[in-house]
Structures are given as structure tokens and as C-alpha cells.
Amino acid sequence: MAPISKDQILAHNATLQRHADTDYEYLGEQLARRNIDIDTIKTQVASFGVAIPSWGVGTGGTRFARFPGMGEPRHVFDKLQDCGVIQQLARATPTVSLHIPWDKCSDWSELRQTAASYGLGFDAMNSNTFSDQKDQSHSYKFGSLTHADAATRAQAVAHNIECIEIGQKLGSKALTVWVGDGSNFPGQQHFRRAFDRYLESTRQIYAALPGDWRMFLEHKICEPAFYSTVIQDWGSSFMAASALGTKAQCLVDLGHHAPNVNIEMIVARLIAAGKLAGFHFNDSKYGDDDLDAGSVAPYRLFLVFNELVSAAHEGVTGFDPAYMLDQSHNVTDPIESLMSSAAQVQQSYAQALIVDRAELDAAQTANDALMASRALKRGFETNVTPILQRVRAEAGGAIDPIGAYRASGYRQQVAKDRPAVVGGSGGIV
Ligand code: LRH
Ligand code: MN
Question: Best of 54, 98, 126 to mutate for ligand 1, by most ligand atoms within 8 A of CB?
Fold first, then answer.
């Protein structure tokens, strides 16, 4: 059930194919001079996928306001259809990461079939104990898994276990646990007791994990708490994941660090410890801005992929990160932002793949800082678009996903099917 007609994509590609082929051949010659086989890189890129955040296909907002666009998805089935468009055109997002209860539905097997009809599967499930649902007994105002009140903690644990049960019905293999628990005033929270309560609660969730599942702990420096956050940084996350067991690992959301923190080095540490769960890719200039991946600091994204490619290149054991986008699209068409962000992540991966590892290793060993930096920059400065275009075309996608999407009139069509949503008060969804 392809949301956009195949013929339309083929017709669109036909106008671009000859130039795309010429560009591919030319890049192939350039890379061959660097002893790099372009088809090998193409095959590796073709096997790379990044998950779409279900909460990212609707227009996002801030605490001040949200300005909905045309054809806003009304429910998880609309979201899946939009994810189907992203996968059909960009061919880099074979899975969707759901958020409960935002994506609650009455028939999970129907949802699984619908996803499969769009060529989609399900990545990590996301629990939500950072907002209260209307029929909830205990409020999360003062925390959830670390709340001082045992009944509130039990409610939060039960919700996470429910997310695992839903995920099992959908074929997901992981649960991401992000809690906003923390404090706004010095003295408001006992740091060590709150962390102990976090471990007591997550141990119960860990015990409910099926054998082949993983649990991703997501750290974040602040927001919604603005003095302290229980899982504030990779150190707290690593302590917890180490205490829980081998199925617990640390998820790195690129927007969850203080400005100028060396995120690629945190990634290297977690890889070395076998505790890298994976990523929530996005970009930021100030705080947890959830901007499009690579839109502000593309070199930083590339440097993260340089650590990932070097680990795979060296065959580091237990290295199996999950790749997900986590963005809020406040001023763009979310489908366009997600397609271009998926392509950006693919691009950073491809550029890291063409770094001459032997040249880099030799420069590092020789303390030749300039040649080491140049070896990396050479990868980053290589325009790999011809490889991404070839990967998409060979997979039945669009050489230019944004162009094909705009030509399809999909947004205008769903705007007719889905009632318009008036501007709402704040909130990311
Ligand atoms: C927290 C976060 C988390 C999601 C939420 C939507 O800031 O990154 O991953 O649950 O955004
Ligand atoms: Mn996140």
C-alpha cells in the first residue's frame, strides 16, 4: 500500500537519472584514486537505517505555542502513513519508534499489518512518565520512577512494563526509558536516595524484559527539571546500566548535553564499555532544541559517525547501536525534515566510511596532528550525494525525495482527508 504512486517516482527519477549516473561514475573515479571502491561504500550505506520517531511526523511546538500545519496526523495510523511516504521516497527509515500513550490504539496486530504494508517495522518503544494522563491515579509532578511515594513509582514501573508488552505484539526489541525526574531547588531532592529509587524501579522493569530485549537509558542535562536531573549525564546513565545488567545500555540523544560537550568522546567511552545503546539524532545550538540532524553542526554529527565506523572497522565486540531520529519540526513539513535528516545521517555515515583509516592511524601514531585532522576532513568534505542517490534509486526510492514529495501533492491530498487543526497551546506534540 504505497502512499505515493510508483509511476510518479519513476517519472520523477527519469528526469534526474542521467546526471545522477554521471555524478556516480565521476565520484567513483575520484574515490578509486584513493583506493576506495564506491560500490562497496554504496552497499554499506544501503544496509544502514535510522528509525523515525512517531512523535516527529506531526508539527512540533515549544512551551510557548505550536502552529499546526496542513494535514496533521490524527492518530497512529495517519502517522504510519506519513512514515510510509518517508520510507517510500528516502529508503533509509525501515522502522518507526512509538511513544506510549501518544500512539495508543485498540488493535496492535492491525497496526503491525498496516506498518508492514508500508514496508515498516518497529524500533524501540518509548514510555512516558513525564506527563499525567487524565485517568491516572498518581501524578508525576514530583517524579515518576524516582518519586518519593512508592505507589507513584509502582504506577510508573507498571506503565513501562505495559510498553514492553505492547512492543512484543509489534516485534520491537527494546524499551527506551527517559524520565524527566529531578528538582528545581537546591535541597528539594536527596541526590543519592533519588538515584537508589531509580535503580529500585528500573530493576523491576529490567526483570520484565524478554530474553532478547534491551533497555535503553536516556540521560539529559535538564528540562523539565532545571536544578538537577536524576539521570543527568552519561556517568549517571552508565552507573545505572552497569548496576542493572548486560541488557541495559546508555542511549545518547545529541541534544541532551551542556553546550560544547565532546559527545563523540562520550560515544567512544560507551563503545569501549560495551554500553552504547544507540542514538537519538537531532541538532541543537543552545539546549534540547530538537532541530534537524546536521542542520547546525554537521561536522559534530560526522565525528560521532567517525567513532562508530572506527569501532565497526576494529570489530569491537558487543557493538550494535540502534539509530533513531528524535526531532521536533516546528516550522517545516515534518515529512520533508525527516527525509532530509535521514539522508543527512546516511551522509555522515558514508563520509566516515571513506576516511582512510590506515592514513589516520599512522598520523595518530606519529603525533602528526595536522595530517590526522586532514584525514578526517577529507572524508567530511567529500560530496557523497551521488552514492545516496544511487542507493535510493536502486531501492525503488526517489533520487530527490523532497522534489518527488512536493511533485506528488501528498500534503495537499492529506489536508483534504484530515480536518484542519487550529493553533494550540504549547507542547512538543
Ligand atoms: C526527552 C526526549 C525523549 C523523548 C522525548 C519526546 O527530551 O528526547 O527521548 O521521550 O524527547
Ligand atoms: Mn530523545
Answer: 126
